[in-house]
Design a protein that fits this description.
Helix content: 10-25%
CATH superfamily of the largest domain: DD-peptidase/beta-lactamase superfamily
Number of strands: 34
Number of domains: 3
Structural class: alpha+beta
Radius of gyration: 25 Å
Strand content: 25-35%
Distance between the termini: 24 Å
Largest sheet: 10 strands, antiparallel
Number of helices: 12
Length: 587
């Protein structure tokens, strides 16, 4: 549930006009409380590779691509968040602009470090393996001494693609050595061997033994392969999609993302011209329940549209007016409205700076309305003069809570009253019954280890819903054909109009992409779409009014180093239904 749009400015110092700049190194930047790190490497052939970290959000090792360096002009893309950076290399870093639909200034300062004249005995590159509890992860640390007498280190989890995590409290008093890694809430303590070739100690999470051997060169994570495509075929009918997917997923089922050893299960549902099909692979059954992550946001957007149709709120109403009296002061300038939140144009950051989970396996569970309102009191609800698209879980969590406040209901009860009740979505819920719990498929992290389910409190409107492929398909059918809905009751009576209102395109996201109320819209394909991910699940849903088809993919595995497999399957299905060349699902 992550997207990047950050702002940092500084006074640049120009390089001499014809000097060939070196971009290799680490760079830092900040937007308010959010810390941003850029890691660039240049190999012997001059090839540039790099990753980007938003450490406060736990978004680490985001792959950068498409590097171009021409004298001082420099640019790259960040495919996973549909953004690009373009600018110049300066004496102190990189000055330029980030473009994710709306260009914003974004510059990086080179992370300067003055080494000690004489390295300490613990300085160097160290490699170890963290084992136990189903884990078998390679860990690499880089230790160096500064001229100020302090030790510094960075921590790489190579198999998870989490690179350059900053250590703190790095202490060496021979032979004792210790450090903390705040972003993962872990620490290590142990001893340097007498010959200086090994470190033996304990990693705090578990706790588990973690021993290191000195290395002469660092290791890098495996490069992410470029996407490949399989040839187009005639547009596939819903009745034929399962047979097509049996073939297209064959390799993944045998030895890839859906292999028996992974514990993975995937449910797929499709409708085309009114013909429905629901099928599954691996550990899943057609009625298995999954977390749908940020697809929840589209339900929150529909709740908003419902309440507008019922005259209970207005799209241009300030969110402040839906919060408890005294929560936040009225700003002198423009303030954030419900529409701003629903279109990701509020100017709010992706996450609040007081989001500090006690349990990283269930990170949202202890973030309450008390935390949310405390953040808003400090942040204010003033709307910046220029707001571009910023994907904000905070914003949609706030929207869900504000709508619940206005209705006098909890978010789960409001969801049932306005959407799932009228549509008959009995398995689409926040809290599961005992019978539903038995069908709730165990989630897995990106390394296929069992993962804890996520429970959301104050930010429920951003990602709390669990559902089945069949239920989500019914929801998508309503989006495809709102005029065919005939429902009784106040909520049912306004649902058709609310759906049509939700589909109205309101703002730009990036070239070729716009946004309605939560739903993203691809201008080329004509798809309304949204994806989702939690610590153990990923999902992708879309509907195409012009083609009169829709589909959903639910997977009990989190996003991995190569991106979201659920997204790939969803995009593949969309391309098959449209008769286009389809992204390959092979390993």
């Amino acid at each position: 549930m992550f997207s990047l749009l950050l702002l940092l400015t500084f006074t640049a110092v120009s390089l001499p006009a014809q000097q060939k700049p070196s971009v290799a190194g680490d760079y830092t930047g900040m937007l308010g409380p959010l810390h941003l790190k850029l890691h660039l490497k240049v190999d012997a052939t001059g090839t540039i590779t790099g990753t980007l970290d938003s450490t406060d959000q736990g978004a680490l090792g985001i792959r950068c691509a498409d590097f171009h360096l021409d004298t001082q002009a420099f640019s790259f893309s960040v495919p996973d968040v549909h953004g690009t950076w373009k600018g110049t290399v300066t004496a102190v870093g990189l000055e330029g602009a980030w473009d994710q639909g709306v260009p914003q200034p974004l510059s990086f300062l080179r992370d300067t470090f003055v080494p000690a004249e004489k390295p300490s005995r613990v300085d160097g590159i160290w490699l170890g393996t963290l084992q136990g509890g189903g884990l078998n992860l390679r860990v690499q640390i880089h230790v160096k001494s500064g001229s100020n007498g302090q030790e510094f280190c960075t921590f790489d989890s190579l198999d998870q693609g989490a690179m350059g995590l900053q250590c703190s409290k790095v202490l060496f008093s021979a032979p004792d050595f210790s450090f903390e890694v705040p972003i993962v809430q872990g620490s290590w303590a142990g001893k340097l061997s007498a010959d200086g070739t090994s470190l033996s100690g304990i990693w705090s999470q578990g706790p588990r033994p973690l021993n290191f051997i000195r290395q002469s060169a660092e290791l890098s994570p495996a490069p992410v392969p470029a996407a490949t495509y399989v040839p187009a075929m005639a547009p596939v009918l819903a009745t034929d999609l399962q047979a097509v997917m049996d073939r297209d997923l064959a390799e993944a089922l045998k030895s890839g993302q859906l292999a028996p050893s992974t514990g993975a299960g995937i449910s797929i549902a499709v409708v085309e011209h009114g013909v429905r099909r629901v099928f599954s692979y691996g550990a899943a059954k057609p009625d298995s329940i999954f977390e749908i992550g940020s697809i929840t946001k589209t339900f929150t957007g529909l709740i908003l549209s419902q309440l507008v149709e019922q005259g209970k709120v207005k799209l241009d109403e300030p969110v402040r007016e839906l919060l408890p009296p005294g929560t936040v002061s009225k700003p002198a300038e423009d303030e954030i409205t419900l529409l701003d939140l629903a279109t990701q144009h509020s100017g709010l950051p992706p996450m609040p700076d007081n989001f500090k989970p006690v349990d990283m396996s269930n990170p949202y569970a202890d973030y309450t309305t008390t935390n949310l309102y405390a953040f808003l009191a400090k942040q204010t609800v003033a709307k910046p003069a220029k707001t571009g698209f910023v994907y904000s879980n905070l914003g949609f969590g706030l929207l869900g809570q504000a709508l619940a406040n206005r209705s006098g209901l909890t978010y789960p009860d409001l969801l049932k009253e306005e959407v799932t009740g009228p549509l008959g979505l009995r398995d689409t819920t926040v809290s599961l019954s005992a019978e539903q719990q038995a069908r709730f498929l165990t989630g897995h992290d990106s390394e296929h280890h069992p993962a804890h389910a996520w429970d959301l409190d104050a930010l429920a409107g951003a990602g709390a819903i669990r559902s089945t492929a069949g239920d989500i398909l019914t929801y998508l059918e309503a989006n495809l054909q709102p005029d065919e809905l005939k429902m009784a009751g106040q909520s049912g009576a306004t649902l058709a109009a609310a759906l049509k209102q939700q589909h109205e395109l309101r703002a730009d996201v990036s070239p070729g992409m716009r946004i309605a109320l939560a739903w993203l819209f691809e201008t080329e394909s004509g798809n309304y779409w949204h994806n989702g991910a939690t610590g153990g699940y990923s999902a992708y849903a879309f509907f195409n009014p012009k083609g009169d088809y829709a589909a959903v993919v639910l997977l009990n595995t989190a996003i991995g180093n190569n991106g979201s497999f659920a997204d790939r399957v969803g995009q593949h299905i969309s391309q098959r239904l449209a008769g286009k060349a389809a992204i390959s699902l092979a390993n």
